[in-house]
Amino acid sequence: MMYPRRTQSQIIRVIDLETTGAAPPAHAVCEVGWQDVALGNDGRWELYGEGGNILVNPGRPMPAVTQAIHHIRDEDVAEAPWWHDVARQVLDPYPRRVALAAHRAAFEEQFCTPALTHGADWICTWKCALRLWPDSPSYSNQVLRYWRKPAGLDHERGLPAHRAFPDAYVTAHHLRDQLNEASVTQLIQWSREPGLLPRVRYGPDRGKEWREIEEESLVKFLTDRDPDVRFTAETEMTRRRGGGHVGRMTAQELLL
pLDDT tens digits, residue range 109-123? Predict the structure, then answer.
């Protein structure tokens, strides 16, 4: 594998967690995987290093529902280290990274607290994909993988899905391409906001682009329970009030 020549500080670490469930402290980490992306002297971002993974003892039985997803069993982690013993070395490596990244990073952030990450900024590759690749049929890590076919992605190295290193490895290819389309600052800003959805998720207008729906329908989404839906509806309403043209956003508009 070729690694880019790079300035030490220009590294972003992609993180993926496998857990016993989705709601800490009731649930805990059972595996962490990582893959770095670095800025080369040519100004392009590329994968850097081999990445890795560590099994973690979650300190509680593994529910069958989650075992069915990642196939990590109680006996696999019985002798593994605790999360607090491995988290800092993975999340706050030397040389220090510019940011951490994950696909749907809000999930990882629940377990990777600021105390463990040294207050790192996060990039959510899911939210950034919504902005940069609005034509994708879906935005899961794996759908983006097969729809986009990122250059250099080794198929076998990205398997099995739903294990920490392969998922981090796949996400790192999405992040690399996003960083080569938009700045780190822009990706972090998008990641701090709710997701800007390209299409309506449900209801009579399901599948339509937001610019295509009638204002009567748009108003109803302004009070939706889903923060991503509300944010998208508010953004579209602001665009209309500003006199923006009707029709889909151009790629350039999505970057602004």
Answer: 999 999 999 999 999
Give the Å distances, CA to CA, from 86 to 34, 51, 197, 241, 246.
Answer: 12, 15, 36, 50, 51
Query: What's the CA gap between 27 and 25, in Å, rounded?
Result: 5
Full DSSP string of 238-250: HHHHTTPPSSPPP
Buried b (16+ CB within 10 A) or exposed e, 137-152: eebbbeebbeeeebee
Half-sphere exposure of 125 (CA within 13 A, CB side): 32
Is residue 151 within 8 Å of 2, Cβ to Cβ? no
Q: What is the pTM of this model?
A: 0.91
pLDDT surpassing 70 at residue 64 = yes
CATH of segment(s) 6-192: 3.30.420.10
Residue spans of the domains in the chain: they are 6-192, 210-255
Confidence check: pLDDT of 238 > 70: yes
| Exposed e or buried b per residue across 86-113, where buried means at least 16 C-beta atoms within 10 angstroms of its C-beta | bbeebbbeeeebbbbbbbbbebbbebbe
Neighbours of 241 (CB within 10 A): 8
